[in-house]
Amino acid sequence: MAPGSGYLSVKPGVKVKVLYIGSADEEGWIFAETESAERGWLSTDSAAPRDVQNLERKIQPHVMTALRGWLPERPGHLRIRKGDQLYVERQEPGWLYGFVSQGTCGWFSAEVLTKPPPPKGPRPGALLQPRLPDFLVGQRAPKVPWNYVLEDRGCFAASLPAEKVASLLGNVENKAWGTYWVKRVAQGIEDLGGFERPSGPLGVIARGTKWLVKEGCSCPYRYSGMEVDAKPFPSWMDDLLEQVMSLCGLREEEWPNACNVNLYVGTDGLSWHADDEPLMETEDGNCCIISLSLGQERPFQLKPNESQEATHELILGGGALCTMEGQTQRREGLGPSA
């Protein structure tokens, strides 16, 4: 075809400047300019095979950065990695043509220039580790390493080992704090007339007990057909509360106003039960019981009301703390082993 008809007619060995590489229905054609400034379409069949392979590199590419990776779907596609420097020489709807560094030319998805859409819904970590309710002791005292062993249907139970309690309260020897308080509490209860062993429908209970209340309270503790009269807090209770409550994150006006002291000797124990008496509940139905174990190490078990077997067990040594919070008294059974 003669020059001027939109096509170039060049002789072998003539150099041309490639201005555009055809695509789609123009595949196999280039738009070029000769040294004499003639422009037109030229079939790639007119060029040597090596020149055809490198035609794209004669056009100044646009340099871009891949924001995500892409895997080839068929021959002629390039594999793109996130962060690759892309030399883009041609763009088609949804597709780019170019090369990475000085590699082979090929096609790849234009999606590599966009960030992937954020996932829908909460992160998996948020599902595996849901935030605990703010009313829990572990949330009120975030710097104290409370270990929540029960988190189920609004029921929560946590423990703080004796050695942690002693360490946080500034005791050099782990056993010193627990030993001190077991002696002081034992003497304090003796000064109040000693432990009581009231009788119920099934006879004398298999433990000693003492019901202590804050000044201004006088309500007895009624449970299982028995009633235990209240005794006022002795002076040492203020010291004990000040230390224990510092690990629970409770303000002084939130400190417990009653304390049930139980003594287990030898084979003494307590069967499955729930501390669900009306005086234990708050307006929202939640209940927080903070328990301090003194003396010999004993296991403490919990189970759902619908189960016959224990599902959680805490080994509580002398000086250890544990909590039962939320709906635990409604949905869980409690029982220190004999």
TrEMBL record:
Tell me the domain of life. Answer: Eukaryota
The answer to whether keyword Coiled coil applies is no
A Pfam short name: 2OG-FeII_Oxy_2
Q: Give the SH3 domain ranges.
A: 59-118
Q: Which residues cross the membrane?
A: none
Keywords annotated in UniProt: SH3 domain
GO MF annotation terms: dioxygenase activity
What GO biological process terms does the UniProt entry carry, in alphabetical order?
Answer: DNA alkylation repair
Q: Which CDD domains match?
A: SH3 (cd00174)
The keyword Nuclease belongs to this UniProt entry's keyword annotation? no
> What is this protein identified as?
SH3 domain-containing protein
Native source species: Cladocopium goreaui
